[in-house]
Specification:
Elements (H helix, E strand, L loop, with lengths): L1 E5 L2 E8 L4 E5 L10 H7 L4 E5 L16 H14 L6 E6 L1 H13 L3 E7 L8 H17 L2 H11 L2 H6 L1 H12 L3 H12 L15 E6 L7 H10 L3 E6 L6 H4 L1 H12 L1
Parallel strand pairs: 3-4, 3-5, 5-6, 6-7, 7-8
Antiparallel strand pairs: 1-2, 2-4
Length: 262
C-alpha cells in the first residue's frame, strides 16, 4: 500500500488502475481489503482508490472520537494529496455510507456520482446511541471480542455463513486485528452522526443505492426508501446477500456498479 501524511497520521491506501476515479470507503470495523473483489475487477476500467480510514488497517491513529465529517474530510485531503481534481464517484458501505453523506454535504463539488451500499440515512436512536457508547468503553477495557461476536451473525446472509466460511473468517480476522482505540473512536463518531433524511431530496447527483436482500442491519426496504427520496437514484437489490454484499456476491455488485457508471 501507498501512504500520505495527513494532519496527525499517515493514511494508507490502494491506488490501482486508470480512468474515471472511483473511491471505495470501507465499513466498520474493517479496512480496504473488504473491497478486494471490486479493486481487482473495477480497476480494469477505473482508477480505484481504496483507503484504510483513520485508525483502521495500516492507517494508525489515536483519536478519542472520529466523526463521520472528519472521515469525509480525510477523503477530500487524500484526493488533494493525489492531485485528483476531477469529480469522483464515491462508494461507501455501512459506516462508509455514513461518511458518504457527509462527503456529499461537505465536498459535493468534488462528486460526480454516489454509490451507497448497505447503509442508513437516519441517526441512531437514543437506545442505539447509548449501546454504541457503552460498546466503545467495553472495547477499550476488554478488547473487541464481545463486540465482534455480536456483530458477526448480522453481517452475512445465513446461507453464506455456511457456504462462504473463508470469507466470513477473513472478515472476522480483520475485525479482530483492528485497534480497540479505532473501534471506540468510530463508535463514538457514529453515535453522534446527524440524521440526513431531510437532505436526501437535495442530493441531485446520479446515485446507486445497493442493498443485500437479507441485510439485517440496513434492511432493503429502508434503502428503497432512501432511493425513492433522492431525485436521481436507482435501487438495486443483491439477491442472496446480507450486509456485506460486496464480499458475498462481488460479481453482482461489480455488474451493478459497472452498469451504473457506464
Amino acid at each position: 500500500m501507498q501512504h500520505v501524511s495527513l494532519d496527525s497520521f499517515e493514511l494508507h491506501y490502494v491506488d490501482q488502475g486508470a480512468g474515471p476515479v472511483l473511491v471505495l470507503v470501507h465499513g466498520f470495523p474493517l479496512d480496504h481489503s473488504m473491497w478486494q473483489g471490486q479493486i481487482d475487477e473495477l480497476s480494469k476500467q477505473f482508477r480505484v482508490v481504496a483507503p484504510d480510514l483513520r485508525g483502521f488497517g495500516k492507517s494508525k491513529s489515536n483519536d478519542d472520537v472520529v466523526t463521520m465529517a472528519q472521515f469525509a474530510d480525510d477523503i477530500a485531503a487524500l484526493l488533494d494529496a493525489l492531485k485528483i481534481n476531477e469529480p469522483i464517484t464515491y462508494c461507501g458501505l455501512s459506516m462508509g455510507g455514513y461518511i458518504g453523506w457527509q462527503f456529499v454535504l461537505r465536498h459535493g463539488d468534488r462528486l460526480a456520482k454516489l454509490i451507497q451500499c448497505d447503509t442508513k440515512a437516519k441517526a441512531d436512536t437514543d437506545e442505539a446511541r447509548a449501546t454504541r457508547l457503552k460498546a466503545a468503553d467495553h472495547v477499550l477495557e476488554h478488547g473487541p471480542e464481545t463486540l465482534i461476536a455480536t456483530m458477526m451473525p448480522k453481517l452475512f446472509a445465513e446461507e453464506n455463513c455456511s457456504s462462504q466460511p473463508d470469507i466470513v473468517e477473513a472478515t472476522r480476522k480483520v475485525m479482530m486485528n483492528t485497534a480497540p482505540s479505532a473501534i471506540a473512536a468510530a463508535q463514538r463518531g457514529m453515535a453522534e452522526r446527524p440524521d440526513v433524511t431531510d437532505e436526501l431530496s437535495k442530493i441531485n447527483v446520479p446515485a446507486l443505492i445497493l442493498c443485500g436482500e437479507h441485510d439485517a442491519i440496513s434492511p432493503a426496504d429502508e434503502m428503497r426508501d432512501i432511493a425513492s427520496a433522492m431525485p436521481n437514484a436507482t435501487f438495486v437489490q443483491i439477491d442472496g446477500a446480507g450486509h456485506m454484499a460486496p464480499l458475498e456476491d462481488p460479481q453482482a455488485v461489480n455488474a451493478a456498479i459497472c452498469d451504473f457508471l457506464s
